Amino acid sequence: MATLDPLESSVQLSPISIETKCEILNHLWGVTVRPSQYYTSDFDFDTYFSYYTAQCNDALHDGGRHVSVRTHRDVITIAQDLKSSQTRAAIKSTLASKMRTPRPANDDEILDGSIDLVLRLLLMVEFGHLQYGFTGRKQLVWDSDSLEEFVHGYFNTPRALGQETVKLEKIFNARNLGRIAGMEIEWTDNLADHLRLTDGDKKVAIFHHASFLECQLKNPLFPDGLIEETIRTLALLLPQSDRATQKWYTALSTSKNLDAKASKSGRLRADDRHIANFPFWHDQLVILKQVFDEAEPSSLSQWWCDRRKRVQWYTFWVALLVLALTVFFGVVQCVEGGLQVYKAYYPS
Q1: Which among 232, 234, 252, 236 is positioned nearest to 184, based on CA atoms?
Q2: Which of 12, 27, 286, 347 has its CA 20 to 30 A from that of 329?
């Protein structure tokens, strides 16, 4: 009896078998993982496959009328074409030749939707215009040149904020962005949104898929140094040496299905913490650091955590202590006075 190819199973079949996941990792990322090693390695592959399944289900909404992808083999086939330096038009032509006749009226939409879906699965970057909803994420449209040229051109955008010599202190980490600056962290699946500020600079997106990044270090579709630098931003924001941050992220990774490896992205030396060492994410870090530095405490918890200005911190808490004692003794005196009046009228 012939053995069923794991890649021939439907992309909507859930859960995906371990054998199928290993085949996808091998063909999509070029990573050899045996089923027996899937849960024993240092990588958190299941976080990626949660993303993989969600993307496939979203793309196949409305009965799959907007994409031609049906099996994992379809995903791998298109991914191989994307890696081969072909233009989008050439890949669309290849896919069109495989479509059944008569071709559907929305054949162009189906071809674009299929390519964009695989682009998202391959690069974890939001490609294409989603017709069925608004995600709020930054979406890229690839329509010319090879995929490698397009991706390199996007991430190699020249700095707009000039050369900075700012050093990023140890206090500048993801946990303190919320505790001190009152910012909300949005853990994103879109690499293009990494360190992006939204909602009036009250929210910051952090790409947490460290396992994906580790497996893309030699991927030529990404510019040289981008993946390694992104991993270093995770080491900056989720420092391994900070036990409180580690404990905080461990709890979050369990409750929000985040990549556990993100908090194990290495340690940065003092010389590595200069913004100039982050050419790809330079502008995002400059803006984020500025927002962090300019943030003023707006609650008692923030006043307690924010010790960047020691004199101001001590002054505030001494003043608060004096106020509390004044109120306390004032209440005591009022009670004592009330008791004295009571005793005067009712001496017994």
Answers
A1: 252
A2: 347
What confidence tens digit (pLDDT) does each residue in 232-248 have?
Answer: 999 999 999 999 999 99
CB atoms within 10 A of CB 123: 22
CB 236 within 8 A of CB 170: no
Q: Residue 184's beta-bridge partner residues?
A: 203
Please, are residues 248 and 254 in contact by the beta-carbon 8 Å criterion? no
DSSP annotation of 10: B
Alpha helices of 125-281 — where are they, by DSSP H?
A: 147-155, 174-179, 210-214, 226-237, 243-256
What CA–CA distance (Å, rounded) separates 27 from 212? 14
Residue 305's CB: how many other CB atoms inside 10 A? Answer: 18
Residue 171's alpha-carbon distances to 125, 237, 279, 297, in angstroms, are 30, 9, 21, 15
Report the alpha-carbon distance of residue 298 to residue 232 in Å, rounded: 31
User: How far is C-alpha 13 from the geometric centre of its chain's CA atoms?
Assistant: 26
Q: pLDDT of 164-188, one tens digit each?
A: 677 898 899 999 998 888 899 999 9
Strand partners, 206: 187
Report the distance separating Cα 31 and Cα 25, nearest Å. 6
Angle formed by the axes of helices 18-29 and 45-59, to 10°? 90
Contact predicate 140/203, CB 8 Å: no
User: In whole angstroms, what is the distance from residue 138 CA to residue 316 CA?
Assistant: 41
For residues 223 and 152, the answer to whether their CB atoms sit within 8 Å is: yes
CA distance 177 to 289: 10
Q: Work out the mean pLDDT of the chain and round it to a whole number.
A: 86
20 burial type by CB count under 10 A (0-12 exposed, 13-18 middle, 19+ buried): buried
How far, in Å, are 44, 56, 132, 133, 188 from residue 61 at the CA level?
27, 9, 8, 11, 22
Map residue 161 onto helix, strand or coil.
Answer: coil
